[in-house]
Amino acid sequence: MKKHVRLATSIIALTALLATGASASAATQTIDGREGEDSAVVPVNGIIGEFDNTTPGPDPVDTNKWINVTLPTTALFYSEAGNVSNLVAPNYTITNNSARKVDVIVEDVENLQATSVIDSLSINTIELIDSGVKSTSLTGTDSLFELDDNSNAAAASNSFTFTGSASGALTLSDEVNPSFDLILKFIPIIS
Prior knowledge:
- Helices cover 9% and strands 34% of the residues.
- The protein has one helix spanning 2-19, and strands spanning 69-70, 78-80, 83-88, 92-96, 101-113, 120-123, 126-130, 133-134, 142-147, 157-160, 162-165, 179-189.
- It contains one helix and twelve strands.
- The chain has two domains: 2-49, no CATH class; 65-189, Sandwich (Immunoglobulin-like), CATH 2.60.40.
- It is mainly beta and 191 residues long.
- This is WxL domain-containing protein.
- Keywords: Signal.
- It comes from Candidatus Enterococcus murrayae.
- Residues 1-26 form the signal peptide.
């Protein structure tokens, strides 16, 4: 009798979820009477109140709700003192505050301004600019790194930096200030 009550409760909860217009894709099971089966157990989880992506729990319908990262609002690269053609940058940290792992993707660079002086510029090992324009090797799916969930503080943070060259800097009479927008995408890893 308890099995039938749990099944009925599960079916009611699932019907209520579907009636609200939300849809969920989940693993399925088949009950086959030819195999002597006539009932099933469907575990049901709930999320009540505002979803808290910093604590473990059931996955929301929109798994992007797991994204909760802290990163710099701006970044800087510059000519190295003593060798102006060598481009360097500080280390910048991205921290995952979520209870799920997150993959950090370099999706694009946009709005390139005054970049013609740059021979090459990379973020970690991903080339962003080649001969003053967006690198053709930038695919939009290049993983910068994967961040662990917030239960592992050491692996929940990682850093990036910029390196490159600007051979034309040796002949410049005035400072040049290139700029661009770095587009990062965050993908929660649901396992």
